[in-house]
Amino acid sequence: MDKTELQLVDFFLSSGASDEQSKVMAKQMIKRAAQLSDERGWSDVEAMQHLLKLFVEAQQG
User: Fold this and answer.
1) 17 close to 2: Cβ distance less than 8 angstroms
2) What is the mean pLDDT of each run of 10 residues along the chain (61 residues)?
3) What is the pLDDT at residue 31?
4) Torsion of CA 18, 21, 23, 25, to 10 degrees
5) Which of 3, 21, 25, 43 is the most buried (most CB within 10 A)?
6) Which distant-in-sequence residues (6+ apart) come within 8 Å of 28 by Cβ?
7) Measured on CA atoms in the order 38, 44, 19, 21, is the torsion positive or negative?
8) Closest listed residue to residue 27, CA positions, set 42, 39, 17
9) Do 29 and 48 contact (CB within 8 A), yes or no?
10) Are 12 and 19 within 8 A, CB to CB?
11) Cα–Cα separations (whole angstroms), residue 39 to 25, 28, 30
12) CA 48 and chain centroid, separation
């Protein structure tokens, strides 16, 4: 697991996900960020920021 994946796992754990869910969600988010980066011409950081923002907004209702 790389540093980004570990950070995301910790983030999802702190958001209430189980260990296994956190690992799956981290991998999925990294994959989706790469897709957005390619599709929209965003940097990897911009894509990840976008996805994290959506996640936090969804958590807040």
Assistant:
1) no
2) 96 97 98 97 96 95 83
3) 97
4) -130
5) 25
6) none
7) negative
8) 17
9) yes
10) no
11) 21, 16, 14
12) 6
Q: How much is the CA Rg of the chain, to the nearest whole Å?
A: 11
Here the tokens at position 17 are 């996900």
The predicted model scores a pTM of 0.91
Instruction: Note the helical H segments in the chain.
Output: 3-14, 19-40, 44-60
Q: What letter would DSSP give residue 1?
A: -
> What is the Cα–Cα distance from 12 to 35, expressed in whole angstroms?
20
Q: Which of 20, 10, 2, 1 is nearest to 52 (CA)?
A: 10
